[in-house]
Amino acid sequence: MAWKETATSNHGGFLGFIVHTVIRFFQFVLGLTVIGLYGADLNAARIAHVYVDGKLVYAVVVGTLAAVTALVFMVPFVKTYKAFPWDIVMFFLWIVVFGIFGNMYIKKNAEGDSEITRMKNAVWVDLANMLLWLISSAFGLFMFFKNRGHKSLHTGRAQV
């Protein structure tokens, strides 16, 4: 069971490993969901040969970055807590996506329009993504300082 000790020591024990894996799994799934929700509009614009809104492209790019990052960080033997700054960057990218589309669609009245309803649902998926990346960045920051082993921050050689 050497793999279990190696995998779980990077994430705060077995419970931390399970929580980490579940969060990363949901980040992956919701990233793919965002790609599908906003990608449908990109595909419709492509088929109609009309202008593609940059906001949609940005949301799909962020969704792709999130899905790929979550998939890579889901590997149990990788010390992902050292990459917590990337989690923070992803959190801010999701803040922007939520802000853009929340401002556009939260106050709109759908009145039976399925496109508006779909986009309103996409906004809540964006919010869920944002919160998941906040949780994973906070967890990574906590684990980074916990696993530093009381060594100096810059060189890691001196005992603190």
Structure description:
By secondary structure, the chain is mostly helical. 74% of the residues lie in helices and 0% in strands. It has 5 helices and no strands. It starts with a helix and ends in a 14-residue tail after the last helix. The model has no long low-confidence stretch (mean pLDDT 86).
What topology does this entry show?
Layout: H1 2-9, H2 13-48, H3 54-73, H4 84-105, H5 114-146
Helix pairs in contact: 1-2, 2-3, 2-5, 3-4, 4-5
Which runs of at least 5 residues are low in confidence (pLDDT < 50)? none
User: What is the CA-CA span between the terminal residues?
Assistant: 33 Å
N-to-C series of helices and strands? HHHHH
Overall spatial form: elongated
Q: What percent of the residues sit in helical stretches (DSSP H or I)?
A: over 70%
Q: What percent of residues are in strands?
A: under 5%
Largest sheet: none
Q: Helix/strand-derived class?
A: mainly alpha
The total strand number stands at 0
Give the overall average pLDDT: 86
Radius of gyration (CA) equals: 19 Å
The number of helical elements comes to: 5
